[in-house]
């Protein structure tokens, strides 16, 4: 495993932990899209079904279990424990507009027409757009708590690092996965504007830009 993949995994884990801690410490899931979290839970479930059929390493198994467990824990906190604080009125993105096309695409474009491979491909495609309900919710309300912007930043960083990981693997291992690379590029692009504002202009400008987007 190269340093870019390891750092990407840690950034991904940091994003998930930041979100869980935000919900637990504030006892609120205000500003968080439950639909995005359901999509991420679906992503991890369909991607890591190989937990039942193959073993790669202790690290690999541990991270897969953590991702799945944290995803469902987040969904539970949003829709069960702190349901009263969930802003469903603003979390209105039609998730089926993502799931249905992605499902169809995974049947048409995949590496191997087998159940596990199709589900893995589905998870890759879905992850690339799963954050859209969250971004839509933020642009609609014009508000984002600091902890939520950090969550988005680390998610975007994770994807960017994974793109570098694919480049590294191509040059040093001769490994190339077009499906994963294209999906990763799409996902990274979705974060570009948030990356720029977060890094160059600070959080105040970030919030001001969100307000502008919601009013335009």
From TrEMBL:
It comes from the Eukaryota. Signal peptide: none annotated. The chain crosses the membrane at residues 62-80, 122-139, 151-172, 178-199. It is a multi-pass membrane protein. Its main location: membrane. It is found in: Cytoplasmic vesicle, COPI-coated vesicle membrane; Endoplasmic reticulum membrane; Golgi apparatus membrane. Keywords: Cytoplasmic vesicle, Endoplasmic reticulum, ER-Golgi transport, Membrane, Protein transport, Receptor, Transmembrane, Transmembrane helix, Transport. InterPro entries: ER_ret_rcpt. The keyword Transmembrane helix applies. PANTHER family: ER LUMEN PROTEIN RETAINING RECEPTOR. Belongs to the ERD2 family. This is ER lumen protein-retaining receptor. It comes from Polyodon spathula. The gene is Kdelr2_1.
């Amino acid at each position: 495993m190269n340093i870019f993949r390891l750092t990407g995994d840690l950034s991904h884990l940091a994003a998930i932990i930041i979100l869980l801690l935000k919900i637990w410490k504030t006892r609120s899931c205000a500003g968080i899209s439950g639909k995005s979290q359901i999509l991420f839970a679906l992503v991890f479930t369909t991607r890591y079904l190989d937990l039942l059929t193959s073993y790669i390493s202790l690290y690999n198994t541990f991270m897969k279990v953590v991702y799945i467990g944290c995803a469902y824990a987040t969904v539970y906190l949003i829709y069960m424990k702190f349901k009263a604080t969930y802003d469903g009125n603003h979390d209105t993105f039609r998730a089926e507009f993502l799931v249905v096309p992605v499902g169809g695409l995974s049947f048409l474009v995949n590496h191997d027409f087998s159940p596990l491979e199709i589900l893995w491909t589905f998870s890759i495609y879905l992850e690339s757009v799963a954050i859209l309900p969250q971004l839509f919710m933020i642009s609609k309300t014009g508000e984002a708590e600091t902890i939520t912007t950090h969550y988005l930043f680390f998610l975007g960083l994770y994807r960017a690092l994974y793109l570098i990981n694919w480049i590294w693997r191509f040059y040093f291992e001769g490994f190339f996965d077009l499906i994963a690379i294209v999906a990763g590029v799409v996902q990274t692009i979705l974060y570009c504007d948030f990356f720029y504002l977060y890094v160059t202009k600070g959080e105040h400008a970030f919030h001001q830009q969100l307000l502008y987007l919601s009013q335009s």
